[in-house]
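Render this sequence as a predicted structure.
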Amino acid sequence: MRISTAQYYATQAANYQRNYSKTVATANEASSLTRINTAADDPVGAGRLLQLGQQSAMLDQYKSNISTTKSALTVQESTLSAITTALQRAKEIGLAANNGIATDDDRKAYAAELGQIQQQVLGLMNSKDANGNYLFAGSRTDTAPYSQNPDGTFTYNGDQTQINLDIGDGLSVATNTTGWDAFQQTINTSRTQTAMTAPAVDDGRVVLSNGTVGTAATYNAKFAAGQPYTVDFLSSTQLKITDALGNDVTAEASQNGLISNSNGANQTVSFRGVDLKLNINLKAGDTNPDAVIAGHSFQLSVSPDSFNTSRSPGNPSTAVVTGSSVTNQADYTNTFPSAGGAILKFTSATDFDLYASPITADSKPISSGTMAGGNATAAGVTFAIGGTPATGDQFVVQSNNHQTQNVLDTLGQMVTALNAPIDGDPVAKQKFQGAMESALGNIDSAVNQIGSAVTSIGARGQSLEDQSTTNQSMQLANATTQGSIRDSDPAEVMTRLTLQQTMLQASQLAFSKISQLGLFNKI
């Protein structure tokens, strides 16, 4: 077989170029100790590196999310702790004011301090984070979660939405604590009320408090179903309780309804989960206690729902809702929208419709009517209207069933009770003591609710720590795997480089020798 000189030179040049490229590539690999620089170096390995790179980026994002969530939860926890400290001081004030020796002036001073605590707690509930977002407003981070109503109560303006961030594959954690969870679900211990039905004029001899819920399970299971109850005093040492159907249920009261006629005893009567404070106030000349106490009667019932109403912005008239109450319990129970509230909309100066909130293009009224005597009655609720409504007037109505109560309202009730004069009036003093005990129970309930929120934050914080450890292990494994695919073995690559360089030199020497064997070199 004959090989032409041109063919030989071309073949040798191609081989040399190929070997030279390999040597350069190996030299670069030796310099960077990176085996795969392009997909062409190792298509399978390059694909695997791309997947591992995406996982690494995701793990970095998880790390950032964990850091962000930890920071947010720390701020929330410290804020809730500050609120708890303020409420502990409020409880101290309530106990001091209720010690039996405080004067009206003392109580007014306590009321002033308690008012400052209320504003402090309000400010903490409306706290913002470093980015200017409200901590406890749910997803409505640009809206202050709490605002004060014209009647002095407070409304929660946030929602119940939790903002979640991914911290691991298939795992996310809520970064926020809503005011609904931390404050709005505080169990209201003051859910019952008493009203004297006999004698027609209160003689002050029997004072029965509105009561506090002492055992929630018993209250929920039994109390509401049998109310309203009638509490009759048969003598100065025995009372009788009958339910709404007239059944004698005295056996379910503490000591079977046996009471003490000791003057100002401030004794407790427990009935179906409700604790009532009772005082028997005998007067001078009451030689026959049974005769003067017998015949006193009270009605004991669940506190009726109340309503917060507000004018919608842009109402054509200046009319307002001055009061509202349930006047038909059956209609109210069956018709009034408890979730989300309602909107009272006037279609003329006297005609109105009641809608479930919010009103949409498809909304239909759940009740309609015409005002009578300045009152608008819809879905079992009567609204007292001040002024003359105009077509298009709307009023937002929120119902309150008193099952829960935020602590701002509790503090407001305490301030009101502390400012009322009671010196020299034993009956007023006994009623004040009952009101303060209810308020103190609600403060304890609020602290417990906040404690549950703090516990939730702690549990999420522990989850962050555990997942952070898991993610770090995954990042280490990821880096190790990427290194095993991408990185070169220094000993192997240097040995290969030496071999390739030697082969390249040998190729150069061989080409030089063979090129001298041409015919013209022999002439």
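Summary. The two ends are 23 Å apart (CA to CA). The chain has a mean pLDDT of 85.
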